[in-house]
Amino acid sequence: MPTAPRRYAIITDGFLTDRRAKTAHGVMQYGRDKVVAVIDSGYAGKTMREVMPRLGCDAPVIASMREALALRPTSLLLGVANQGGFIPPSFREHILVAIDAGLEIVSGLHELLRDDAEFVERAKASGARLWDVRVPPPDIPLYSGAAARVPQVVVLAVGTDCAIGKKTVMIELDRAAREAGERSEFVATGQTGILIAGKGIAVDRVISDFITGAAEQLLLGVSAEADYALVEGQGSIAHPAYAPVTHGLLFGCSPDVLVMCAQAGRRDIEEYGVPLPPLPEFIALHEALLRLVKPARVAAVALNTMDLDDAAARAAITAVEAQTGLPVDDVVRFGGAKLWRAVRAAAAETAKAKENVRA
Amino acid sequence: MPTAPRRYAIITDGFLTDRRAKTAHGVMQYGRDKVVAVIDSGYAGKTMREVMPRLGCDAPVIASMREALALRPTSLLLGVANQGGFIPPSFREHILVAIDAGLEIVSGLHELLRDDAEFVERAKASGARLWDVRVPPPDIPLYSGAAARVPQVVVLAVGTDCAIGKKTVMIELDRAAREAGERSEFVATGQTGILIAGKGIAVDRVISDFITGAAEQLLLGVSAEADYALVEGQGSIAHPAYAPVTHGLLFGCSPDVLVMCAQAGRRDIEEYGVPLPPLPEFIALHEALLRLVKPARVAAVALNTMDLDDAAARAAITAVEAQTGLPVDDVVRFGGAKLWRAVRAAAAETAKAKENVRA
Asked: In terms of CA atoms, which chain A residue is nearest residue B276?
């Protein structure tokens, strides 16, 4: 990958304001890398600030990859997530222009760049890197225990189910940490998170024996400048199908602090109808399981209240605080500051924080 | 795979009495499939009963694959596990004879049959199947929940660490069950187990998202004639590297009964120096974790006392019985009858057994 920060051109041609461009939206709103151009002929001539102000992105919208080259992008991101995950045919010519210019091509689609003979051949000629973010790197080593010795305080999101906001919680906590003047890094473990972070491993695609090793490699790759590594969680230890992935992150990350992510009113694993135990019992089980390899505690509950109005959300937060005795908040609705303080306080209890974190 | 039971020719040429032939020895001693010939020129003319009486196998030792064809094998098993996992060059000619005769070739070696162009081409011509048992089948589906509804009582081995005898315990319980007149089937989840059972999936090689699905497929593949499925466990929920594999079996098998495998005197995860909690706490944690998806209990402790003499072994068994309140035995040293009775009694407590198991 580029050694300097990326400068992204993002192609969404025809989908810019569509839900299918959510990958592009996520990177513009939350991404660590600079977006220098958006390629979408329908909005060419405008800026992203004009088209979608909520994203907070000032990149110009440009009609073609060829014109976007003038803005010196390092990478072209395919900014859509369509049904079937194929590479939209209209993208092809733009991708080839970017490959020939030696740009890195970044895709989270099911249809892999590496399986396209023309892309591979032209990339070989120009030296362009093709990065299919769904595919884990080859030769992930076995877990060695080195993750337990990284200098950063490692914070891992765990949760009651898939798709309840573990990624968003950690991105908001990362933002809150920076706003509090701390040096933190979001660590991505799934496809969208990887596109936002600009690096990461889709751990659910790793061979079972190596998932703890993959988590460890992610921690070893955190910037030496960071004092906190905020790891995107996956699944749930209660999920009938995906629990092994969750367990792999729990052990492989060797976390110092856990954040429990839950959704207000949810009482089961949605897809399987498996009822969940009461949250305090579920939290204690995480701590007991993790204690097999290291002690660490759940510092806070991130409550997703998206289905509630503000008053009901506040009532739900108060109820879960009473139930768990922990700080609780909806970081999307109310910001991450409160939960960040809770994480920071729990981190300060750990030997690692005491020794290593710069005051 | 052959629809009728296999008739194995096993090649060990030059290694028959060597530790490197332990794969061959395991299949001869414990395998479900008939061994009709052993190919090893050094002992040609003798029977296995003469060469290694302890294996209880009467197959003749024959100098070549070509001669062995007269005994109508369905399959040729490469019976060695050498350093590096390569296919011994002296096997090559015998393998080609077997392929040309349309036999299935079965190998647990690292060097894959499918990567050998000549084997692949000749197999294509003759219709021979090449089975690399380390490689999971393609297209394993996601976990569906069907494992929870198989008619068999599912018994899963769990344990304190890798390599403490989980496979052997389940094979001995399978034997004890049959001796007690029950219909049971050993379900293999690792390479050596697969060679013994003649089927199975090396679950630690499955992509993380699909390990529960792989376990489920194994249960769905158990013979309708069997009342008990005795599943080989892998790793330990306390193992820093391999716990996700263990968790995958715990959820994916939807077990009705667990058997805890432990080694007398062992207090930690050997490779990582991670101390283990006391056995009663460790057992309770398994039950709490499994309760997230279904209730089931640890019915017995299989204690590996291989480092002790008989008197010390008996004392260790008594001590663990007092500590856990469960039946404890070393099934290798003293046979599986006692623990099988404990499994049978725990199974009888489950709704499934009450409804489904024929008396």
From this structure: A292
